[in-house]
């Protein structure tokens, strides 16, 4: 009986701590959001994020408040000699926070650091096959999302993608879509949808379009989506998220069911921003 009482007391204490921590987080974030948005940051938004002006006024306000919290909580680290300044921080935060609009959010809770390289960076990998044979490979990347609390980005690619908000490519949106996916565990193309009964339709629609993209990649048939999305379901989700935000009109016309699923997940309709 004593052991049961101790267990129950410990459990209640843990729940109480979690609730109090959540309350403290909300209070701290409310204080951050109540502060005026710096004029210098607004200038950066206008310069580096062309579609900011296309957002409805309520979403502009939401985005600015999200940026304030994001920048207060996440650490930016410059790599290969890159010095982090407000232009880098605000430009990246603005695009990352697009994915949080109209949603209850804990601001990418698993994410602690954003590592920023001046340009595309080389990732070296060591692999071993079933026979025990090891080999080394290297890839040139514009971005990478780690499950260990880090996102890695190329600043030049970030700038290039932000400058053209209608080309269907955005490395920040791509990598932070992975972060949303990873909130539910390993990235597998099935982020937290909020309602359990939403998963069957999500799986059916995304699975069908993923298979279609794989077939298009194999045959060389043109697609609205990058063939990179055919790599696996996680990359498919990240790739279609880029297109959802940047080419919503064409996506809705060509893939209406897929567009509807993403619109329901993100709680946004970017067609209204045109």
From TrEMBL:
<dbReference type="InterPro" id="IPR010384">
    <property type="entry name" value="MtfA_fam"/>
</dbReference>
<dbReference type="InterPro" id="IPR042252">
    <property type="entry name" value="MtfA_N"/>
</dbReference>
<protein>
    <recommendedName>
        <fullName>Zinc-dependent peptidase</fullName>
    </recommendedName>
</protein>
<dbReference type="InterPro" id="IPR024079">
    <property type="entry name" value="MetalloPept_cat_dom_sf"/>
</dbReference>
<dbReference type="Pfam" id="PF06167">
    <property type="entry name" value="Peptidase_M90"/>
</dbReference>
């Amino acid at each position: 009986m004593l052991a049961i009482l101790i267990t129950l007391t410990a459990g209640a204490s843990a729940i109480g701590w979690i609730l109090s921590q959540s309350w403290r987080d909300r209070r701290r974030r409310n204080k951050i959001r109540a502060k005026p948005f710096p004029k210098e940051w607004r200038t950066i938004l206008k310069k580096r994020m062309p579609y900011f002006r296309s957002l409805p006024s309520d979403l502009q306000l939401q985005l600015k408040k999200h940026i304030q919290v994001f920048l207060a909580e996440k650490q930016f680290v410059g790599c290969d000699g890159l010095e982090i300044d407000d232009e880098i921080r605000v430009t990246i935060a603005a695009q990352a926070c697009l994915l949080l609009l109209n949603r209850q959010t804990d601001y990418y809770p698993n994410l602690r650091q954003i590592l920023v390289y001046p340009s595309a960076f080389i990732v070296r990998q060591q692999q071993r096959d079933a026979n025990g044979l090891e080999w080394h490979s290297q890839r040139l990347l514009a971005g990478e999302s780690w499950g260990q609390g880090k996102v890695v980005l190329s600043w030049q690619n970030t700038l290039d993608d932000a400058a053209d908000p209608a080309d269907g490519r955005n490395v920040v949106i791509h990598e932070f879509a992975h972060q949303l996916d990873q909130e539910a565990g390993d990235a597998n193309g099935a982020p937290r949808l909020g309602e359990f009964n939403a998963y069957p339709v999500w799986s059916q629609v995304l699975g069908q379009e993923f298979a279609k993209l794989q077939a298009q990649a194999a045959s060389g048939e043109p697609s609205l989506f990058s063939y990179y999305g055919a790599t696996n379901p996680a990359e498919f989700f990240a790739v279609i998220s880029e297109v959802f935000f940047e080419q919503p009109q064409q996506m809705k016309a060509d893939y209406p069911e897929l567009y509807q699923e993403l619109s329901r997940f993100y709680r946004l309709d970017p067609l209204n921003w045109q």
